[in-house]
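Q: What structure does this chain adopt?
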Amino acid sequence: MQGLLLVSRSRSAWPKLIDDGHGEGMRPNRVVAIADRMDQRPVAATISAVIRDEEILLVRRANPPDQVLWGFPGGKIDHGETIEAAAVRELKEETGIEASAVEVFTAVDVIVPGDDVRPQFHYVLIAVLCRWLNGEPVVGDDALEARWFDFEGLNRGDLAMSLDVAKVADQARMLAMRLDL
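A:
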């Protein structure tokens, strides 16, 4: 039986000798350099594209990245949670809207440069087309505003939006039309 798994940001702390608790005394343990790589990996998150009556739901973000810009409701996927479940949960938390997930249809990288070599933020946003079931937008966590927009308004250029919002909205609209939603 192996002993404890030690993870440290400081390589000077490796290797450590530990007591495995099974009477075999002190011995080197298997050490994995997970922590040094963890903050270099992108964070998986969902965005929910909800269409109702030829309008799409957007929120004005309360937090970085893209604070104060309009974008899709969404957020991080919890460990063990499916993409679809995360999209529906985040949508409800941010807007109060109830919906069902229909289909994953695209993904977008959000990479915000940092002060050094590593980005400050790197999210992979997985877009999910959702079918509106119930509710009107009410501001929840992580949003300053939430409301429906007509598609033409997104393409006029007078709305401060996150990168690729209009493009993803158009993709969602085409998929919804193809699926007859």
